[in-house]
Amino acid sequence: MAKTKPGKKDLDSYSIKGTNKVVRPGDCVLMRPSDSDKPPYVAEIEKLEADHRNNVKVRVRWYYRPEESIGGRRQFHGAKELFLSDHFDVQSAHTIEGKCIVHSFKNYTKLENVGPEDYFCRFEYKAATGGFTPDRVAVYCKCEMPYNPDDLMVQCEGCKDWFHPSCMGMTIDEAKKLEHFLCSDCSSEDETKRPLNSFHVSPPDEAKVKTLYTHLVNFYMILLVISASIVSPS
Questions:
Q1: What is the pLDDT of residues 181-213, one digit of tens each?
Q2: Right CATH for 152-197 from 3.60.20.10, 3.40.50.1860, 2.60.120.20, 3.30.40.10
């Protein structure tokens, strides 16, 4: 008569091999891909489980990178952006390479420094259909694209919309020097606000000012000579 195999047991934590890091259900982890040329997969741990031989399995919910989705990567997708998918899987815990943090979009934009372990998510993704939740987000600028936290944008003091420097005919360096900014629509509505589109400018070239002054003096002296020559003696 065959013996019944001992049951599996749930684990509260798991120590990543070769590191001093411990992961628990709810943590986000980096998992080794089968293709070494690809970046590690990102997943959220749902459950840790050990069998009677102490082999540890991990049930995960996968995050997809934009390029792994049906629609592919688009202009507004950030370099560290992920989609929380409805794709669940069971993997060996040995494939866990490290821990990471998947921030909300709002919290990610507040980070002063983005580390290698920092990612963000603003969409849930249906792997079978390619659908997103939410299916609509706010758009900005003349190009009407969602916000990409990797791109510099400047805010109009009139309409409060945000704009890409390139869409407004500016370089990034010029945009960084702006003290105030009005978009073209707001500037055209009120001409008195045009001076707000100001850049730091260098002071006048002193040499050019002196040269202009010299020319004016010489011109004035010539006029005096001409006037004296045409005036008859008394």
A1: 999 889 886 555 444 443 332 333 444 444 444
A2: 3.30.40.10
Peptide bond into 195 cis (omega under 30): no
The rounded distance, in Å, linking the Cα atoms of 19 and 41 is 18
Q: Can you tell me the distance from the alpha carbon of 170 to that of 176, in angstroms, rounded to the nearest whole number?
A: 10
For 9-134, which CATH class?
mainly beta
CA distances from 107 to 85, 110, 116, 150 (A): 20, 5, 16, 14
Q: Are 85 and 45 in contact (CB under 8 A)?
A: no
Q: How far is CA 12 from CA 51, 58, 81, 106, in A?
A: 14, 11, 29, 30
Q: Which residues contact 168 (CB under 8 A, 6 or more apart)?
A: 142, 154, 175, 183, 184
Where in the chain are all domains bearing CATH 3.30.40.10? 152-197
pTM for the full predicted model: 0.73
Q: Tell me: the pLDDT tens digits for 130-188?
A: 999 999 999 999 999 999 999 999 999 999 999 999 999 999 999 999 999 999 889 88
